[in-house]
Amino acid sequence: MHQARDISEHERTLLALREGQERLNAALEASRTGTFSWNLQTGVSHLDENLVRLFGMAPTQTQTTVEGFLPLVHPEDRQALLTNTQRSLNEGADFEMEFRVVWPDQSVHWFYSRGKTSFDQAGRPDSMIGACVDITERRRLVESEALALDKAREENRFRRLLEAAPDAILEVDAQGQIVLMNQVAETMFGYSREELLGMNVESLVPAAMRGNHQRHRASYRTSPQTRSMGIGLELKAQRKDGSLFPVEISLSPNWIDGTLHVIALVRDISERKESQDRLRAIQERYAAQLFAANQQLEARNEEVENANRLKSEFLASMSHELRTPLHTIIGFSELLIEELEGPLNAKQKRFVGHVLQDARHLLQLINEVLDISKIEAGRLELQREAFDFAVCLGEALAGIQSQALAKNIRIENRNTFSDLLYADRLRIKEILYNLLSNAIKFTSNGGLVWIESVADESFLRVTVADTGIGIPPEEQTAIFEKFYQVGMSTSGVREGTGLGLPITKNLVELHGGRIWVESQPGHGSRFTLTLPLQGQQS
User: Fold this and answer.
1) 201: how many CB neighbours lie within 10 A of its CB?
2) Which residues of 284-322 are buried (b: 16+ CB within 10 A; e: fewer)?
3) Kind and range of the H or E run holding 196
4) CA 263/CA 255 separation, integer angstroms
5) φ and ψ of 332, to 5 deg
């Protein structure tokens, strides 16, 4: 009786253990959890049935090694698995990580694994036992929630961007109904968001243009692309209260599930149009004023030209009329001073000399007025010929010799050009005489005046220099203007008409050359001119 009772209790114990194991296995299977034990001495791992099934292994593969298990692990996770395992063994810490297993059908499964290391009496790692939980569904749920959160954040950013835009933004579906808009659109058109949603976009177009707008939408569907509407046209939109306002519109296609939607950006350009209209009115007013002013200016210019022409004609006529009696005065004065009709006493001879000198000076002034008149009237013509430039220069120097002697001024001829020059001989002599005479006029007693002439490529370069009083920089352009005089001569008075340099400049330019001055007050002046040699004839 006693033996029978012992067997019965043993059976009950085994039965309880078996039932507990079954409940544990059921719980592990329900939680998609499997266990393992790894003998670190032999390197063999024992997997329970749940773990074999969760890893996608054959039911008989309840034992494996690291080398046998590692190929099942996703390639991107293998090194991390080895590193974490080794660190746990080295530090005697629990093993814990997430990794992926690739099944034979190439499906990927996520696992959370946790293991505890046991040590032998010497303190060396002896074994590890642990469990692996299939967290694939949980990972998918987390990733799905993360994607949903990202999508929500993206939509929120899109909505903030939409609301921050300065223009009205409308999205219109294939039927022409508004399915999206921003706050600016509500304000611009005067409708609430609820009113705009589902509204046909033609309601925002002026009634007279709605038929055309429908045709434009149909045409856009055949060739959808980003573009601006109404370039060169005046587009208008209509508010809820029926008022119209000018707009600019840009269209962009937006495909949703294969269906064409259109994004429209609408810009209210009322202020710009008003500014443009005001600017246009101002421009038109000023254009009219400018036209009237130009007409008045043209009339005044015509009057000035007529007056200038009459003045030139008067000066030319008067100069001609004055030269005739002057020639008579000069001629008879020269006869008297030569004493061909009898001797003169000293006083008479001095008087006749003054008459002759002043008559010649007056003739020079009249000639200058006549020259400038001809130049202004465009009637001065050059009589070009080939002549010896050195001889011409000698004659000019002889003509100013008396002026130089009167002021004890030394004249130096540094000419190196000995060829023939093809130009108007009389006018070239006049140019040289004017420059030399001008140099003497503004050079103090005992000073120096010299002239340099040299062929420079295709030009003859002539320089008349002096040690005179010089010309301030601010006046070096004005001296070539008519009637302008730079200041007092060395005699303390203004001399001449102020026409010598303007006439000289015009004569040089008529020959195709140019003239300029280099000067500093108190350090003399250098007048340089160029005359072309291309037209030279032998």
Assistant:
1) 21
2) eeeeeeeeeeeeeeeeeeeeeeeeeeeebeebbeebeeb
3) helix 193-196
4) 10
5) -70, -30
pLDDT of 257 strictly over 60: yes
Q: Which residues pair with 127 in a beta bridge?
A: 39, 118
Distance of CA 147 to the CA centre of its chain: 45
Q: What is the CA radius of gyration of the chain?
A: 57
- Model confidence over 149-203: pLDDT tens digits? 878 787 777 778 778 788 899 999 989 999 998 999 999 999 999 999 999 999 9
Beta strands in 467-538 (DSSP E): 514-519, 525-532
Burial 233-248 (b: 16+ CB within 10 A, else e): eebebbeeeeeeebbb
d(CA 60, CA 47): 10
What pLDDT, on a 0 to 100 scale, did the predictor assign at position 30? 54
C-alpha–C-alpha distance, residues 231 and 213, integer Å? 15
Could you tell me where the DSSP H helices lie in 165-191? 183-189
pLDDT at 497: 58
Average pLDDT of the chain, as a whole number: 85
Count the neighbouring beta carbons within 10 Å of the beta carbon of residue 410: 12
Three-state helix/strand/coil letters over 277-342: HHHHHHHHHHHHHHHHHHHHHHHHHHHHHHHHHHHHHHHHHHHHHHHHHHHHHHHHHHHHHHCCCC
Q: What is the mean pLDDT of residues 116-144?
A: 89
Q: How far apart are CA 216 and CA 220, in angstroms?
A: 6
With tokens 């009589």, the residue in question is 383
Is the Cα dihedral 66, 68, 72, 78 positive or negative?
Answer: positive
DSSP 108-159: EEEEEEEEEEEE-TTS-EEEEEEEEEE-HHHHHHHHHHHHHHHHHHHHHHHH
- CA–CA distance, 129 with 262 (Å, rounded to integer): 62
Report how far residue 74's alpha carbon sits from residue 102's, in angstroms, rounded to the nearest whole number.
6
CA 35 to CA 28: how far, in whole Å? 9
Structural tokens at position 303: 């009057």
Most confident of 220-224, 329-333, 404-408: 404-408
